[in-house]
UniProtKB/TrEMBL annotation:
Function: Part of the Tol-Pal system, which plays a role in outer membrane invagination during cell division and is important for maintaining outer membrane integrity.
Family: Belongs to the ExbD/TolR family.
Designated name of the protein: Tol-Pal system protein TolR
GO terms assigned for molecular function: transmembrane transporter activity
Localization, UniProt: Cell inner membrane; Cell membrane
Organism ancestry: Bacteria, Pseudomonadati, Pseudomonadota, Gammaproteobacteria, Kangiellales
PANTHER family the UniProt entry points to: EXBD MEMBRANE COMPONENT OF PMF-DRIVEN MACROMOLECULE IMPORT SYSTEM, TOL-PAL SYSTEM PROTEIN TOLR
Subunit structure: The Tol-Pal system is composed of five core proteins: the inner membrane proteins TolA, TolQ and TolR, the periplasmic protein TolB and the outer membrane protein Pal. They form a network linking the inner and outer membranes and the peptidoglycan layer.
UniProtKB keywords: Cell cycle, Cell division, Cell inner membrane, Cell membrane, Membrane, Transmembrane, Transmembrane helix
Biological processes annotated in GO: cell division; protein transport
């Protein structure tokens, strides 16, 4: 008996194996979850270094007034950020914000390349307009 053996041809499989893509996606997710808290937002200034103790956090968010090397101002209050301000715009903004939180400390974060006179002018305006006698100067620790 002679039987014909009929073989079926295999068709090509048109499915994509997504398991390796899922593995890559999970690795990328872990990398982003680890690096996201390390990314700091804000203006890049080179702070001068000094031996100083860090201040303790109070119940009020400090007003962090920054001066970039091009002598433009910015201000951070908690998570709110105000960028590229003139001195007059900065004083108007501080006046408005001090109505809501008059006891908030004011910290100056000046780039090391900013002329000393600009920092003194800012401190003088704060004293004249708002009676602020104590202003903190931010530095990098050594």
């Amino acid at each position: 008996m002679n039987q014909l053996v009929r073989r079926e041809r295999r068709r090509p499989n048109a499915e994509i194996n997504v398991v390796p893509y899922i593995d890559v996606m999970l690795v990328l997710l872990v990398i982003f979850m680890i690096t996201a808290p390390l990314i700091t937002a804000g203006i890049d200034v080179e702070l001068p270094s000094a031996h100083a103790e860090p201040i303790s956090p109070d119940e009020y968010d400090p007003f962090v007034v920054g001066i970039k090397a091009d002598e433009s101002f910015h201000m951070d209050i908690g998570s709110r950020q105000f960028r590229d301000l003139t001195l007059d715009e900065l004083m108007t903004l501080i006046a408005r914000e001090r109505e809501n939180s008059p006891n908030s400390p004011i910290m100056i974060k000046g780039d090391r390349r900013v002329p000393y006179g600009t920092v003194v002018e800012l401190m003088d305006e704060l004293r004249q307009q708002f009676g602020v006698e104590n202003v903190g100067l931010m530095t990098d620790s050594l």
